[in-house]
């Protein structure tokens, strides 16, 4: 460990062409998974309100 060196990277200008990085793995399905989660959360919230008595049924005789 006596011979370790530390380098500080100081970039100059931005590269003229930037590499396009496509989402891979879990990143590529993030929007779909987020939408599914939000839908499941909404359904669960509506069930919770229903069972907590927030929604009351009106019975007509």
Description:
With 61 residues, the chain is mainly α. The chain has a domain at 32-60. It is built from one helix and no strands. The protein has one helix at residues 30-51. It is elongated and about 75 Å long.
Question: Can you lay out the helices and strands and say which pair or pack?
Answer:
Elements: H1 30-51
Brief overview:
The chain is mostly helical. It has one helix at 30-51. It is elongated.
Q: What structural class should be given to the helix and strand makeup?
A: mainly alpha
Q: What fraction of residues sit in β-strands?
A: under 5%
Q: Helicity level, as a percent range?
A: 25-40%
Rg value: 27 Å
What gap, in angstroms, lies between the N and C termini? Answer: 87 Å
The description of the largest β-sheet is: none
* Number of beta-strand segments: 0
Low-confidence stretches: none
Could you name the key traits of this structure?
single chain; 61 residues; mainly alpha; 1 helix
């Amino acid at each position: 460990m006596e011979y370790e060196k530390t380098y500080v990277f100081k970039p100059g200008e931005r590269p003229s062409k930037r590499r396009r990085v496509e989402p891979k793995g879990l990143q590529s399905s993030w929007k779909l998974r987020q939408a599914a989660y939000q839908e499941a959360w909404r359904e669960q919230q509506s069930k919770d309100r229903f069972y907590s008595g927030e929604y009351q049924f009106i019975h007509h005789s």
